[in-house]
Amino acid sequence: MSAAPAPVGFIGLGNIGGPMAKRLIGWAGGLTVCDALPAATEPFAAGGAHVATTPAELAERSTVISIMVRDDAQVTDVLTDPDGILSTAQPGTVVAVHSTVLADTPARLAAICEEKGVHLLDAPVSGGFMGAHEGTLALMIGGDQEAVDLVREPFATFATLVAHLGPVGAGTQAKLARNLITFASYSAVGEAMRLAEAAGIDLNLLGQVVRHSDQVTGGPGSIMVRPSAAPLDPSDGLYDSFFHGAALGEKDVRLAIALGEELGVDTPIAHLTADLLPSAMGMPPKAES
Fold it and tell me: How many whole angstroms separate alpha carbon 51 and alpha carbon 86?
């Protein structure tokens, strides 16, 4: 006989936390929510969820608790304040921090939780507002396997990928690396838009091309198929395709640099990319002449 569904609590009903929690309305184990803004809880009350006035009240009713608040300070307060989770949480409770925090925060908070017999997971999300609404988020989780197993079923309501990456802290470390890809790419997009605009290209149509081709190729993540960031060995099955891809990419980036020089558009990211692309794609350093 399978265990009864765990009662779930959700703290922080903002732009991403709210849609995540809405997918738990009707959860068989029951849902309790809490937010600093009473208006944020109204749709949940209407949907049959219990509204707690404090994290302590929520913890009394929940054995799996999700936290999606703004920053490290708020996460710490929600856990450790006099009316925080740890003032009432029963041993065995699992607390998952979905907020993006400092790399060392999960381990610090996990040690505090352990004193109460509470398990802490760092479980930041990827997929943004759209993924939260559609229930297609990816979760990057750090923590004990037993605790991860307890959250998989409720978390499947808002995430289609739950990746257990290692001990406490691994989820946050992975999220910081993942966000570096996102925001570094945005910087490159900004430079590409300036270049295309100077050339008279319709940016809306170019944006359609970019989004279309990224759906086909997988975008920047398509090269993340190596088990290590070290240079590829020539005997590796990926070596030839990555070698040709790096060579083609470097050529095309240098053509973009040349176009920028022709149009008077500064392209610092393109210059940096031309230098770093080969190593990013696993090619060994070039021998000095």
Answer: 18
- What are the pLDDT digits (tens) for 169-186? 999 999 999 999 999 999
- Which residue type occupies 101? V
Q: What is the CATH number of the domain that holds 19?
A: 3.40.50.720
- Domain count along the chain: 2
Rounded Cα distance, 242 and 279, in Å? 10
Q: How confident is the model at residue 119 (pLDDT cuts 50, 70, 90)?
A: very high
In a domain, 114, yes or no: yes
What tokens were used for 29? 């184990």
Say yes or no: 15 and 128 in one domain: yes
Report yes or no: 143 and 167 within 8 Å, Cβ to Cβ. yes
pLDDT given for residue 285 in this prediction: 80
Residue 288 reports pLDDT greater than 70:
no
Structure confidence at residue 2 (pLDDT)? 60
144-156 pLDDT, tens per residue? 999 999 999 999 9
The single residue of 22, 116, 175, 251 carrying the catalytic annotation is 175
Q: Are residues 12 and 154 in the same domain?
A: yes
Give the CA dihedral 188, 191, 196, 200, nearest 10 degrees. 160
175 given a catalytic annotation: yes
154 contacts 23 by C-beta, under 8 angstroms: no
Does residue 266 share a domain with residue 163?
A: no
Q: Which one has a higher pLDDT value, 1 or 62?
A: 62
User: Among the three residues 120, 137, 167, which one is the final residue of a domain in this structure?
Assistant: 167
